[in-house]
Amino acid sequence: MEHKLDFKQYNEALKQNKLLGLKCKQCGTITVPPKIACGNCASTDLDIVELSGNGKIQTFTTVFVPPEGREGECPYVIVLVELDEGPWIMGNLTGIDPNKVTMDIMGKKVKMGHAVFPGDKYSAGEEARPLFSLGT
What we know:
2 domains, five-stranded mixed barrel, 1 helix, about 5% helix, globular
């Protein structure tokens, strides 16, 4: 079975500040990041769509103990964002002091950008990841 949108294409689009997802032709569910089948109905009949990157924060966590290789980056905030188009996606929150983030952040509007992170011993090399900033 062939991926309609593979991780390499998704990663390259993120580097251009484009968020690509897959829209199911059977049920209309949008999936991001890409998967081989719809998470709702398991159909593989999918179309590539570009998403706005706009959404609102549903929950968050502040990381004080970093994974290996990211020791100098702490603390940082990871948010789970419900995109305007429906799917939920995780990314780092930028432009705010992680030590001052409170529950008031929940429900705030955000806009996606990106950052490229170097690979580590557990990855296949550098990759782009979503970053979110407050306001749209």
